[in-house]
Design brief:
heterodimer; A: disordered C terminus; B: 4-stranded antiparallel beta sheet; 24% strand
């Protein structure tokens, strides 16, 4: 085991870099972080459209969410990697393919989480904000969302953890993320599959567990402050 | 001045407001009462357009409230509305609840908004709770904050939708006193309430509604002592304690 780690740790961590493309755990982390960073605002926007009072905003997003929920992520990856280039004629890079697939897929799920958070609030909150004279979007931003997102935090974290694990599907299109590298190491080491995949499993577990604990810490911190982060009452720019 | 002209509202087939015509003059305090489901809340919610109407007109100082071209946010900023369930924003402190509209809507400097909010909280006797979160207040205190919040944009009109109905009995008084102070200051008020003591002492006029229509309008004295309509007489008898007059 130690011999294995000693021999392959750098490969596991960064792949063939700097001799070849960046890979391994670092690539997984970059993919997951970018996935989170991009899918959250997109999911938020889609979630807002999904509860919007205007039908022409609501319907397409509802259709999109139903579509994405109805197909496995692997299919989305395949489509993005094989199907899209055949139409556009542009060969897609594995990293961008995987990132776009992740963002599209997770945004649909995040949109549903955001929707549930918003619709779970008492109707009186929006109504009261509107009665004060706040326009719809301002009421959403200052009154509804700060509460809704706080209530949704456990579900959001759940989705983020899924995102980390979903990056492993990059393996299927030859993206050299950590699962791909682990498989390479397994082939090289030949007789140590238990150790290799044990370490891989542990790596994912540490990442996800770390995120869970971080979320737990954030939740407790917000609980101590009463009901969550205070929003700014500074004038909007 | 609020003028309701033949206001009609339907929820599907249900005729919620039936030909309501009423004029509320500046500085007048009007109490709206009636059995549950009679359309009282619906009526005051149409005045700041929380509910749409299907027929008639509502004029506030001559402007048609339900005119689609009217800026509804501007209209609402000029009408204080107090809900039965207080609806304080639980993620904001008491003072932030009161500054939100001024800062976000009127672009008032936070310090100035704060000063104004503190003056209003002082007025409802809760300046010492400015930094508390709504969850740390009693129901009566929350409703007093809600009244202060509704006053931050200095509306000339206040609408109160059963402001004491969700309160424990011992907290009703503190809220009614705040409301009486408002009335004394010349605020135009339309208040849906079952607090007949408040109606008797503070109201200029009592409106009685049943099944979406206004059945009777009178001064409190006339209303309580000489109710005209049979339905009004029954209502007044029903809301009396059953333990009075040996009824039980």
């Amino acid at each position: 085991m130690l011999e294995l780690i000693d021999k392959y740790w750098l490969y596991f961590l960064i792949g063939q870099y700097p001799g070849g493309p960046l890979g391994g755990l670092v690539l997984t982390l970059i993919l997951a972080s970018l996935g989170l960073l991009l899918s959250l605002p997109l999911g938020l926007a889609l979630g807002l459209m999904r509860v919007s009072p205007w039908r022409w905003l609501r319907l397409p997003v509802t259709g999109f969410v139903y579509l994405v929920r109805g197909i496995p992520l692997l299919m989305v990856v395949f489509w993005a990697y094989f199907f899209l280039p055949s139409i556009t004629g542009v060969k897609t890079n594995q990293f961008w393919t995987m990132l776009i697939a992740l963002v599209v897929f997770d945004a649909a799920y995040l949109a549903e989480i955001v929707r549930a958070g918003i619709q779970g609030l008492p109707k009186g909150q929006m109504e009261c904000a509107r009665a004060l004279g706040l326009p719809y979007l301002k009421a959403m931003r200052c009154v509804v969302l700060p509460q809704a997102l706080r209530h949704s935090l456990p579900s959001l974290v759940n989705q983020f953890i899924s995102t980390i694990k979903e990056t492993s599907l990059g393996y299927i299109i030859g993206l050299t993320e950590v699962s791909f590298i682990a498989n390479q190491i397994n082939t090289l080491a030949f007789t140590k599959p238990v150790e290799v995949f044990g370490i891989l499993g542990l790596t994912y577990f540490v990442l996800c567990f770390g995120l869970s604990r971080f979320a737990h810490w954030v939740e407790r911190r917000m609980a101590r402050q009463g009901l969550g982060g205070r929003i700014s009452t500074k004038p909007a720019a | 001045m609020i003028e309701l002209q033949n206001v009609n509202k339907w929820y599907g087939d249900y005729h919620a407001l039936v030909d309501v015509t009423e004029t509320i003059t500046s500085g007048e305090v009007v109490v709206v009462c009636g059995p549950s489901g009679s359309g009282k809340s619906t009526l005051i919610r149409t005045i700041n357009r929380l509910e749409e109407i299907q027929g008639g007109h509502i004029l506030l100082d001559g402007r048609d409230v339900h005119d689609p071209r009217l800026d509804v946010n501007l209209l609402r900023a000029g009408i204080g509305f107090v809900f039965q369930q207080f609806n304080l924003f639980p993620h904001l402190t008491v003072v932030d609840n009161c500054t939100l509209a001024a800062v976000q809507l009127k672009k008032m400097a936070p310090a100035e908004a704060r000063e104004r909010a503190m003056a209003l909280l002082e007025r409802v006797g809760l300046a010492h709770k400015a930094q508390a979160l709504p969850a740390q207040l009693s129901g009566g205190q929350q409703q007093r904050v809600a009244i202060a919040r509704a006053l931050t944009l200095k509306p000339p009109v206040m609408l109160l939708d059963e402001p004491t109905s969700a309160l424990d009995p011992e907290m009703v008084g503190e809220v009614l006193l705040v409301m009486r102070d408002l009335a004394k200051d010349g605020m135009t008020m339309v208040c849906v309430t079952h607090e007949m003591g408040f109606a008797r002492e503070v109201a200029d006029r009592v409106i009685f509604m049943d099944q979406g229509a206004v059945l009777e309008r009178a001064t409190p004295h006339e209303f309580f002592n000489h109710p005209q309509h049979a339905r009004t007489q029954k209502f007044l008898a029903d809301i009396r304690s059953p333990f009075e007059h040996g009824a039980a």
